[in-house]
Design brief:
Elements: H1 2-19, H2 24-38, H3 43-59, H4 62-77, H5 80-92, H6 97-109, H7 114-132, H8 136-153, H9 158-166, H10 171-194, H11 221-240, H12 249-258, H13 261-277, H14 284-318, H15 320-328, H16 335-350, H17 353-371, H18 375-385, H19 395-404, H20 408-437
Length: 438
């Protein structure tokens, strides 16, 4: 009975978001209340469950996501992202320009949220297209594949960061495993797949012709690369600490503290504020405007994450999660495959990778614990599934279509196929890693 109730609630969530066009946060609250009442949680306890789920989920994430948004906005506004891309493109020339853009998208995509990265990278893509007279989809899609992979697989992006917390995974290990899977996923769904797309007609709109910052206003190359990669370097250092011997206990304590994800983001933002802000001649008043705008960009994402936490808590407090976990075992699917499949189905239904990942996490949690699955791999499996089957209910689908001025058919052939390829390759990478670390 619990499975039927949860299925109906997921259908209700899909209907509220897709058909009724209700904000996902409000939809999650409505569905959480509905699920709690149907699963017979006492009304006086139901609101406490909803508040606990929202608070527990956001409590450890608000710092990471907000600081990450501020960092990404500053990297974009300071010209550091433009500098990274220009250095890479100038280093390889026209022959390997596609690979340079892929690498630029990957580097820039690590600290930037997807929407910011997309809007930032598209002018760069179009400047290359106009300069070298190359097919826009062939050049642009691989870079966008890099942004998608970082969005779905790598902390501190909202969905993987939230999943790390929900599954009690290790942020540093998840990042390392995610990087190992991300590289083949980008290569296959990016440059290799794009070879089939050279004949897709695309004439980017004049509206999107880039307005680059002048070269003398850009920060230095080393500074740009170092700050963009600093969160990754610090998180990887923390993950390696247990394997390093002879570290004095007092030093180990401080290194572990510095390697906490919230501290990593705070340290990186402080470094960026000085070198990309103050040293570039910006006042703190100007920088605060950038940071406030960044928070506005991700406020809705935070609410959606909180709403998904409420739904998960209702499932947990009602006992439905355990019952679902036991029932799903009868499907005889590996929990990593099951997590991927649930996320993929919700992604196809709702269009949001973040909502898909977080909803799947609430459903799969009990099964994962009972089967002793590596939580870092489950984060990546659900992250991969949350990228599958992007179509007309996904805002990224329309961004890509309109910016590249494509038909619906060609958008399906390029964008939707690319996102699904990433999801499938990501699952394959997770299952391969599971052989060695599971």
């Amino acid at each position: 009975m619990a499975i039927l109730i949860i299925l109906c609630c997921i259908i209700l969530l899909i209907a509220l978001v897709s058909w009724a066009k209700i904000n996902p946060f409000l939809a999650f609250l409505i569905v959480s209340v509905t699920a709690g009442l149907l699963l017979k949680i006492p009304p006086l306890k139901l609101m406490a469950s909803i508040q606990k789920g929202l608070g527990d989920t956001l409590g450890s994430l608000v710092i990471i996501i907000c600081l990450g948004a501020m960092l990404g906005k500053l990297i974009a506004a300071s010209g550091a992202a433009q500098k990274i891309a220009e250095v890479l493109v100038n280093a390889v020339g026209k022959k390997y320009i596609q690979w340079a853009l892929v690498f630029a998208g990957f580097i820039i995509g690590i600290p930037l949220f997807y929407g910011i990265g997309f809007v930032l990278m598209v002018p760069l893509i179009f400047s290359v297209v106009y300069k070298y007279k190359l097919p826009a989809v062939y050049i642009g899609l691989p870079m966008l594949a890099s942004l998608s992979v970082t969005h779905g697989f790598l902390p501190p992006h909202p969905s993987p960061a939230a999943l790390v917390v929900q599954f009690n995974a290790n942020m540093g290990l998840t990042l390392i495993y995610g990087l190992m899977i991300a590289i083949p996923a980008i290569i296959i769904a990016g440059p290799l797949f794009a070879q089939l797309l050279k004949k897709i007609p695309s004439k980017p709109l004049d509206t999107f012709r880039p307005e680059d910052m002048p070269a003398d206003k850009l920060p230095g190359a080393f500074k740009s690369f170092f700050i963009a990669l600093l969160p990754v370097l610090l998180l990887m250092m923390t993950a390696a600490l247990p394997y390093i011997s002879n570290i004095p206990p007092e030093l180990l304590k401080w290194l572990t503290y510095i390697g906490e994800p919230s501290m990593v983001m705070l340290i990186t933002l402080a470094v960026a504020t000085y070198f990309l802000g103050i040293k570039q001649g910006k006042s703190m008043k100007q920088l605060n405007v950038v940071y406030v705008d960044a928070i506005k960009d991700i406020a809705v994402i935070l609410l959606i994450i909180g709403g998904s936490g409420s739904f998960k808590q209702v499932l947990t407090d009602s006992g439905a999660s355990n019952e679902i976990g036991l029932q799903l075992q009868n499907l005889h699917l590996h929990p990593l495959i099951l997590g991927w499949l649930i996320a993929a189905i919700i992604r196809a239904s709702l269009g949001s990778a973040t909502v898909a990942g977080l909803t799947a996490a609430g459903i799969i949690g009990a099964t994962m614990q009972q089967n002793h699955v590596d939580p870092n791999l489950m984060v990546l499996s659900i992250g991969a599934g949350s990228l599958a089957f992007s179509h007309v209910n996904d805002s990224g689908f329309w961004l890509y279509k309109e910016y590249f001025n494509l038909t619906i058919k060609d958008t399906f052939k390029s964008w939707s196929a690319m996102e699904s390829l990433i999801a499938v390759v990501g699952l394959g990478g997770v299952m391969l890693l599971n052989v060695f670390v599971g």
